[in-house]
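Hi X.,

You mentioned you wanted examples for the new student's onboarding notes, showing what a folding record looks like when two proteins sit in one file. Here is a clean example. The first protein comes first, with its sequence line followed by its structure tokens.
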Amino acid sequence: MINLFRQFILCTKQYLQCNKADHIFNIRLVFFLWAIVVALPLTVTSQEKKENDKVLSKSEAVFDSLLKQGISVIFTDPQKTRELVSEALAMEPGIDTSKIMRVYNILGTTHQLQASYSKAMDYYYEGLKYAGKEEDLLMTAHLYHNLGSSYLKTGNHRDALKFYMIGLRIYKEIDSKRYIASSHNNIGLLYMEMDNYKMALENYKEAIRNRPINDSIGISATFSNMGALYLEMDLIDSAFYFQNKSIEMDIKTGNNFGLTVGYQELAEAYLSSGEYLKSIENYQLSKATAKEINHHFQMALADLGMSKVYLILNEPKIALHYADSSFQIAADMDNIKLKQETHEVYSKIFEQTKDFKKAFENYQSSVQLRDSLINQTKLHQIYNLEIDELNMAGEIQQLEIQRQELLLSKKNNIIIFIVVVFVLILSGLYLLNKNFNHRRKVNLQKTILSLNEKKSRAATEAEIQERKRIGQDLHDGLGQMLSVARLNISVLQQKSMLTNERKKELLDAVMQSVDEAFYELRNISHNLAPSVLATKGFANAIRELVDQVNQSKHIKVHLEMYGLNGNLDGILENTLYRAVQELMNNAIKHANANNFDLQIIKSDDEITLMAEDDGDGFDINKTLIIAGGGLANIRSRIENLKGSIFIDAKVQRGTIISIVIPLTKPNYASENH
């Protein structure tokens, strides 16, 4: 029994990929059927595991035996399967509905294998009549899924997608990753047949994402389908890539049926690319592999493919030979779809040999068979209505039961209580949220006030420090010069007996001291309110400052300015000018630098000042914490303009300082921009 089960698993796994209809699609037919039959052996296995706990009754044992025998030959002899399963159903009328659904699923599968889709749908619909009577959601999903496959084979894409989506929804409810992947794979085939390549590719990718890692056969099947899709899209290289990848996986796993399909599709790819000899070679490989596993249907597809190739090569006799072989298998299997396609090839062969009578007869036969397949869906419109009515009746009955239960248990008071509690909880959450937002606003206001206080203090400290610096300049510079002048004048007053030459020297010294005092006074005044900004503009004021420093020979200043083609806001100009003065002063007095590089760049959104010297550098952590220091004053002024200052300095390495101030209108934008 176990060996028989294992043989069935191998057979069904090898059949997993077969699902191709016209041209590309008919070689994947059995992929639809895998999800139909696979639940059956799983149930048998479950029963075998319970044999030690419970001895089946004689009738149940016979039923299970007939069912397993039928499953074991379902792909090689569908008629035999029907006889065995029908016998089991007739002898066990009282079995549970789950088994009845499974039996009808098997019967439908046997007809679908032979392309008798009308009879297949009869059994699937019959099985769905038992859906909902027991909680066998997996088998219910299988039946809906297989109905979708039948409608797809007959060209009814709308109903096919409808039933596929119902099956997919149930598979997702029971979290069956494997069948979710199979559903997406078949939905991809549907969109592929409708030439909606984007949706087909999305569903194939979704199938790959849901495949278990160890499901190499399923992954190989999806790769094969992707290869067929790229072939339809005339992306030959991609088609070859996925087909070869599928074949490699099948060789590795020993999946001979997968190889028959892979070689078949690779032959289709070579046929589309015009490589006819390689196409024939792969059709022959497909047929040889199918012969090894006694798979007549795949042998017929290979013969039909070679017949088409030889027809293109203008070899009608050889084409007729392979067409005859294909038709013989189709007749033995009573496969309507295979007969229809073979008649179509016959018509083309006889047309090439100028036998137009036979060509027309075979064309008529092909059209009649195709029409019969298409018209099968019209015979089942009543089943759609019947299933919908059954579902609706079940829903109405369920609602009535729920209503009675609510009336008997008097749950209205409980519901009202729950609603009241819910409202109270929502109200509490609302109040908590409102209180939280209020506290957050208060904290934000406190933070803003604290920051404003710190800025105000920093500005006051900067003003005090500036006044100290001015006082120091007046005392050390101007005061000293005036003291020298007063001393010389005092000498002139007290010593009247000085020679004229000595008086002239003293007067010259006085005049020089007075001139120097005027010069120092002008510098101090200029530093207090640089008039050059108003008279010459910011750019020229910077150039003049640089020239003055360069003339002093204390340091060499290199200046570059870009974009300063108009006047800036007065506060912004004054701040930047003071910053340049302070940075130059630091480089000369504290850093002992030899070179000072200055760049000022203005764009539409901001103005950037970069200063670099090669001086002694300093410790940032110590210098920036000095209250009222030069760098602290610069930082305070820059931040008042919503700007940023970046300082890169280390001892004995020099200093790089960057200042960026946004030109946000109306405060600091260029007036002439």
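Then the second protein repeats the pattern, sequence line and then tokens:
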Amino acid sequence: MTFKYNLKTKLILSKKSWFISMKYGPMSLRTKIVLSFLLVIMVGGIISLSVGARLIKDTIISQAQIKVMHDLHSARMVFDEKLNDIKDIVTLTAAREGIQEDIKNNKQDVLTKKFTRIREKHKLDILTLTDPRGIVIVRTRNQDLVGDDQSQDEIIKRALKKSIVAKPQILPHEELLKEDKVLAEQAFIKFVTTPMAEDRVEDKETSGMMLKAASPIIDEGNNLLGVLYGGILLNRNYEIVDRIKEIVYKGEQYKGREIGTATIFQNDLRISTNVKNEKNERAIGTRVSKEVNHAVLKEGKPWIDRAFVVNEWYITAYEPIRNIDDKIIGILYVGLLESPYIQKARHVLLAFALLSVLWVILLLIILYLSTTKIINPLREMVTATQRIAKGDLFQKVKVPSKDEIGILADSFNQMTRNLKVANEKLIEWGKSLEIKVKKRTNELVKMQEQLIQSEKLASLGKLSASIAHEINNPLGAILVYGHLLLEETDKNDAHYKNINKIIKETSRCKDIIRSLLEFARPGELEKHSADVNEIVEKSLTVMKQQLNFQNLRLNKNFSPTLPKIKADSIKMQQVFINIIRNAAEAMDGKGLLTIRTFLTERGKYICIKFSDTGTGIKEEDKNRIFEPFFSTKDVGKGTGLGLAISYSIVEQHRGKIEVESKVGKGSSFAVKIPISMDE
């Protein structure tokens, strides 16, 4: 096969050489060698560039898709946070003192004034009160319209059964008019022609999407006095989408355009967005593409891929918004402008191409120098053959060496007798060249493996440097006090205190290294049936032995009906001890620590909530407390890995940690573990 390939290559090159020689004159041997190698390099380079371009683009886009998936999770948290805020406002208002008496005494004017002040203070669009039958008795906006029946509203219906409810809901045009004509006008959106959108018969939307919460008002005798409900209309309300853009994308731009965007859809219609159209206006009234419409609205699946959004390509993530009946009523969207990532891929590819060109130039230079040793002896043979052709039969080609060129010279002198031998040696030379190429290829592969290994060692070196930096000061203290101990002879001497310092510094070093390695290589969970209350009690037993826990007041409120879960109790105990220790340190050993356990989120999660009366967490630090090595403690008092490890352990259990804090008032850490590990 090698001989046939060489023969075919020679025929192709000979045809090209003949064509070039006919046009530009005879080609030198050096030129032919250089062109042959250049042809091979160019073909290989084109293939490498094509494959490399594909890999580079896929890698960069894949990274962007992973990022946008996390961004969607953050957007959902902002969306749910706003819904919970409305729920808290309605619930706290329903529980306020005096409300029950005003309802019993039928003081509608007083209730109207109170609820109007609350609605305006908290910027709610509606805040309405019904009687125990669901008949409206107080409406804060359209105050003259009362007496209509809201008992068939699914959210109100569940609140009439003494449940607190908060969910997105589609309000028809007629219901919006009851609350206020302004809200009906705000909800009205004319459809804007959108490329790739699915055809619809309608050309406008008159209903609106509202974040709505309802709470029953119950007196001391557990009698239902009525239902208070309130909400915010999302149509043309940009608070949530702009908040998402602010938190997730921090105003980053590319060529004057916002890189990150967020949108709330009512069905497939944009009702709240910071996506801009050609006029640099919010693209209200445009609609989602047909492909996304089918996947999210009809099949109810999240959708993460590139999509054409209004007038630009974005790397997007969509997930459905569901109402209280679990029916899909809209879509939550985040997207990253695709252009920066495409540009980045082009820059990387350009750098790769320039590097390849430089490499080809270097190879050609090396090839030129190496062919010189071959060309010079051949020129001498050409001169000798020209003289022989002129009749100088006394010329004899000198054999300069015993290599391939020497064989060629000897074959010239004994052409007829040694033609077969010379041909066999030429074939053998070709085979040896192929073996050398394979050998060189293997060497290059080994060099590449060594390079990868070097990079791994470099990364390991950086990690070692970080560990060395962390334990440098404690080790210095150990050495100093170690020397002092060498000079001590009496344990009752004043230098005895140095032992405690050595122990303290050594323990700190061990804690830092252990925490670092635990975060870097988390072990597998050893799951078994566990009682959350028992784990918390064991954690408290451990912490009660510590000095900064002695003066704390403890308030325990454990639910006795919690189901057991599959969990690693040792790791969960580590999480609880870490949170309790942080709370004790935040209160400086004095204060009230409240621990509650209860079911939440429709019984899917067990929540363990730790609330302290400590110093609280600054707003700018709240989003960083779970980052590795981030600590608000004084130098030497914390590694910054405790909460990061705790977060990792909870994530291994498919749970989550939620933090609420106010500076000067305290903090609450809520650990939520799914009852089923499939959640």
